[in-house]
Amino acid sequence: MDFTYLYEPYEDLVKKADEVFAEVKKQYPECVTCQPHCADCCHAVFGLFLIEAVFLRVFFDRLDDTEKEEVLSRAKLAEQQMEQLNKKLNLLKDDNEKMTYLMASEKIRCPLLNDSNECILYAHRPITCRVYGIPVAIQEKAHICPKAQFQKGQDYPFFNLDIVYRELYSLSKELLKKVESRDINDASLLVSVAHVVKTPVDRLINEGFA
């Protein structure tokens, strides 16, 4: 399946995210504390839309065999930790506030983070990773990296992830329009990086995340 026509709109989203991050860092250099080997964002729990998953997998396939094996080994551990987290979340399914807190506080190492605390697909990392160090809004609530120095009570520019999520959903929906075996509503499903690296592109597109 040819989905290269989606490259440009997806890369436009990535470019906008990078531009906003750079502008906030320029305005508030003392607040944005991101630096090489920090990796705090590389332990956050989040999911990828199908369009993100497919593009990440494309670049994962270009790694050498040794790198792939190391990533897959870390992915196995990450999935085991995710299973434990899901069990905890199931116990809290009637308490959204506690579930949100648990998700935000849980630390699971991204399989793309190597032993030197460097992302081996840094140039192709998801948008969530790109804006982690600046104030972001998710469902109209502010979120800030715990290592950043933005002060409570002060007004800062923020990156609206809800808008980006809607765009990613739209692109994922566009991708699924050509897949007879998939429900177009699957565009709202999210998948972990650990699942992406062990699932070939054709299976991600045609079979879903099961």
Structure overview:
It is a single chain. The protein has helices at 7-27, 50-60, 65-91, 96-105, 127-130, 161-176, 193-197, 201-207; strands at 136-138, 141-143, 159-160. With 210 residues, the chain is mainly alpha-helical. It has one domain (4-205). The longest helix has 27 residues, at 65-91. The radius of gyration is 17 Å and the shape is globular. The two termini are 20 Å apart.
SSE order and pairing:
Elements: H1 7-27, H2 50-60, H3 65-91, H4 96-105, H5 127-130, E1 136-138, E2 141-143, E3 159-160, H6 161-176, H7 193-197, H8 201-207
Parallel strand pairs: 1-3
Antiparallel strand pairs: 1-2
Question: What distinguishing features does this structure have?
Answer:
three-stranded mixed β-sheet; 4% strand; mainly alpha; 210 residues; globular
Strand content: under 5%
SSE pattern: HHHHHEEEHHH
Total domain units = 1
Number of helices: 8
Uncertain spans, ≥5 residues at pLDDT below 50?
A: none
Q: What is the global morphology?
A: globular
Count of β-strands: 3
The structure class reads: mainly alpha
Spatial strand sequence of the major β-sheet? 2-1-3
How far do the termini sit from each other? 20 Å
What's the quick description here?
The protein is mainly alpha-helical and 210 residues long. The protein is 48% helix and 4% strand. The chain has eight helices and three strands.
